[in-house]
Amino acid sequence: MQIDYYIYYRLAQPERCAEFGAALALMQASLHAATGVAGRYRRRVDDAGTWMEIYEGVADPRSFEVELGLQVQRHDLYAYLVPGSARHMERFRIPG
After folding, report:
1. pLDDT by residue (tens digit) across 43-79?
2. Local confidence band at 96 (pLDDT 50, 70, 90 cut-offs)
3. Third-level CATH fold of 3-92
């Protein structure tokens, strides 16, 4: 069974979007190197402070989630979030 991940959160300082985007791209490159899972990211159209990461077709969810957590910490992505907020992770799969 393969799982798709959608992770969304809010930035504390939307004016730092370019800086955050660079850090996020580096994190996703490291995650891809470690897991083979390529990620994408998007920024909400009507709210520059809301972002989403997308990871599709994850075959080993347990290992992926551990590595994702390590990479997010390694690249200090939590430093950009609204204080007291979190990264909200949603998991989906093809029905059947």
Report:
1. 999 999 999 999 999 999 999 999 999 999 999 999 9
2. confident
3. Alpha-Beta Plaits (3.30.70)
Phi first, then psi: give them for residue 43, nearest 5 degrees: -120, 140
The CA-CA-CA angle for residues 57, 48, 14, to 5°, reads 110
**Residue written as tokens 């190197």?**
33
Q: How far apart are CA 80 and CA 72, in angstroms?
A: 11
CA distance 65 to 1: 15
Q: Of 18, 5, 36, 21, which Cα lies nearest the Cα of 77?
A: 21
Three-state SS for 88?
strand
Residue ranges per domain, the chain? 3-92
Please compute the mean of the pLDDT values over residues 28-55 and round it to a whole number.
Answer: 97
